[in-house]
Design goal:
The chain is of the alpha/beta class. It contains eleven helices and nine strands. The strands form two sheets. A five-stranded parallel sheet has the order 7-6-5-8-9, with helices on both faces. Helix 1 packs across helix 10 and helix 9 packs across helix 10. The protein is elongated.
């Protein structure tokens, strides 16, 4: 049994577990998510045999007492091959750390991973009902603030004006189409009125559904295109339906092209 443990936020946890899940599937091993055993209970995995709160408690304390070995992918420069050999040589082991990566296996089992992380209908139905009223080209815009004000010295904490520039450039790619822009943000000061003023174009309609994190994740996944800073949140949103994503740190806001929108299998190997 492989116990997958980590800290950090929802989509980081999801991707980390998915890498280990894919490795375990390939090697015929059982795997359990420690994080999803007690947190983020709105995914299908929470109702599967891949989580167990009592087993999570046991594994947590056995690992803390060093009675259960831990393969730690904590650092980018860790010896991944040695850690994988460790995983193969122990019947019971904890795997932790953000830098666990099995890209090819992830893609091989991607459909299973997407199924495991299907979002409960309690959270998706209201979003679907709201979005069905708009039939333009759907652009999801992920506005990340909060922790991004300090992460990497705030280089990805873009202004409203910068996001507006990308929206304008996107609308210019479809000169005769209605563009429905769906904002996802952790900044409570953001409003649809602010962006409607920043993007004075009758073809561009701004929507802020005001959902929680998982509702916004689903909303982005239902869009036709996504624009946002480097973030696992928008990355996971692309995973479900291969929604083309433009990562803002890779292209100038005045030179947006369709070729700047790439699919999940490109971006997930380039996590910042």
């Amino acid at each position: 049994m492989i116990f997958v443990r980590d800290k950090s936020q929802m989509c980081n946890n999801l991707l980390q577990f998915a890498h280990v899940y894919a490795w375990a599937r390939e090697h015929g091993r059982s795997v359990m998510s420690m994080r999803f055993s007690y947190k983020y209970k709105f995914f299908k995995i929470s109702k599967s045999g891949l989580v167990s709160f009592p087993l999570y408690i046991v594994a947590k304390y056995l690992a803390a007492l060093k009675l259960l070995p831990t393969a730690s992918f904590k650092h980018a420069e860790c010896d991944a091959e040695a850690l994988e050999r460790m995983m193969l040589s122990h019947r019971y082991i904890v795997v932790s750390g953000w830098y666990v990566r099995f890209y090819d296996l992830f893609l091989k089992y991607r459909s299973e991973i997407c199924d495991l992380f299907t979002i409960d209908t309690d959270y998706t139905m209201s979003v679907k009902q709201k979005m069905q009223h708009w039939d333009g080209i759907r652009l999801g815009v992920h506005i990340r603030r909060g922790d991004y004000a300090v992460w990497k010295d705030g280089i990805y904490c873009y202004s409203n004006e910068k996001y507006a520039q990308y929206i304008v450039q996107f609308a210019n790619l479809f000169p005769e189409k209605i563009i429905d822009v769906f904002l996802s943000t952790n900044d409570q000061s953001v409003t649809s009125d602010i962006f409607s003023q920043l993007v004075p174009n009758n073809r561009v309609h701004i929507h802020l559904l005001g959902g929680n994190a998982v509702e916004d994740l689903f909303m982005l996944s239902e869009c036709d295109y996504i624009i946002g800073p480097p973030s696992t949140f928008s990355l996971v949103a692309t995973m479900y339906r291969d929604v083309p994503l433009c990562r803002m740190d890779t292209v100038d806001s005045e030179k947006l092209q369709m070729s700047d929108f790439r699919l999940f299998d490109y971006w997930f190997r380039r996590v910042v």
